[in-house]
Amino acid sequence: MSKDLTRPRIALFGAFGVGNLGNECTLQALLQNIRTYAPGAEITCICPGPEATQSDYKISSSLIEELPLPPLNNRFLRLLRRIFIGIPMELLRWLKAIGRLRNVDTLVMTGTGMLGDFGISPLGLHYEIVKWTFAAKLAQCKVIFLSVGAGPLRKALSRHFVKAALSCAAYRSYRDEFSKDYLKSISFNSDRDHVYPDLAFSYPIARLPQSSSHSCNRTVIGVGLMTYFNRRCISPADETIYRDYLTNLGNFVTWLLERDYIVRLLIGDVTYDQRARQDLQALLKVRGFGYKKGSIIDEPASTVDEVLSQLAATDLVVASRFHNVLLALMLGKPVLAISYHEKVDALMDGAGLAAFRQDIESIDVGKMIRQFTSLAGQSNEIQQQLNRKAAACRVALDDQYNRIFGNFID
């Protein structure tokens, strides 16, 4: 049966509906721009949190993968279940994926960290990306990868899965040169692919908050937290790296408070960052910095609008999570990044702020204070630079949206 070209059907694939505010910002930007460039399009979503996504955005949503079977301790029973239950169930999932995409025109693979291995295993999301892109090809549904980040991929199986999925695409673009070059380094031909900014830069400008004035003359510093354990985002038995990160961040926040700055704590993931927020809160209380003095603002965001409003209410930002850094830059806020990944480095390089970052696993608080002081001294010029950069990113993304979605409607 031929597809109805007068009403394009677009499926968005990404890690939505699970509390990561950066990913939700990406989804909101996509929805707004697709509706602008392809009015009347029927948009659906494939994600790990379909109930929340369907409720929040009023679009039909389905689960990326079925829930796993409960574990078994007996090796022989595990083998039997894999042969007689696991394999047939996975074949059924492939058939369901093909059926799900049979009446879809375009499957859009978004950012949301899907082509790196931070918190992702080969047989987790990377396998699902292969399954859904292959299912799309079998269902005669066009696949596009839109402003995605890529790498690093430390497992050979992940590299094979990612390259296989990318080979299914009719169009590919990356959010930075690092991603494109990384794919070349693992023998994927990305020469004809494109580089466009992160999709979050296309968040609807009418919904962006204005930088708010303060009720006092004190400077407000946004401090973005992250519950970070190591490069693979795996909680280890030894939490030394996490404790060192928290202690160093606490030392820097203490320095800020002693100099009469107001500190606004920021999170980027509603679920995972609560621990870091609570641990820092406890550390500061031990040092005598209670929350009743008005020097610490701790109002954890639960929506994209809230985190944007909180960022807009700061003067400078010191942050770890990628999208805390990105959204601050988009709002024209000078940023000092505590980088946990190459994607943060590439983002800061692109913003012209490469000198204002530290590695999350080797924070030098003394250097951090010097960087912060220098950043504050240049804040006016940096704000103008960032506003120009954000405007240029919007223009570039408008070009990409028009290229991809502008031809859906006559």
What does this molecule look like?
The protein has 410 residues and is α/β, with parallel strands linked by helices. It is 46% helix and 13% strand. The chain has 13 helices and 13 strands. Helix 7 links the parallel strand 8 and strand 9. It is globular and about 60 Å long.
What distinguishing features does this structure have?
410 residues, Rossmann fold, seven-stranded parallel sheet, six-stranded parallel sheet, 13 helices, 46% helix
Q: Biggest sheet, strands in spatial order?
A: 3-2-1-4-5-6-7
The largest β sheet comes out as: 7 strands, parallel
Q: What is the level 1 CATH name of the largest domain?
A: Alpha Beta
Helix and strand run: EHEHEHEHEHEHEEHEHEHEHEHEHH
Q: Please give the number of β-strands.
A: 13
Give the overall average pLDDT. 91
Number of helices: 13
Helix content: 40-55%
* Outline type: globular
How large is the radius of gyration? 22 Å
Structure classification? alpha/beta
Distance between the termini: 22 Å
Domain count: the total is 2
CATH fourth-tier homologous superfamily of the largest domain:
Glycogen Phosphorylase B
Low-confidence stretches: none
Q: Tell me the quaternary state.
A: single chain
In brief:
This protein has 410 residues and is α/β, with parallel strands linked by helices. Helix content is 46%, strand content 13%.
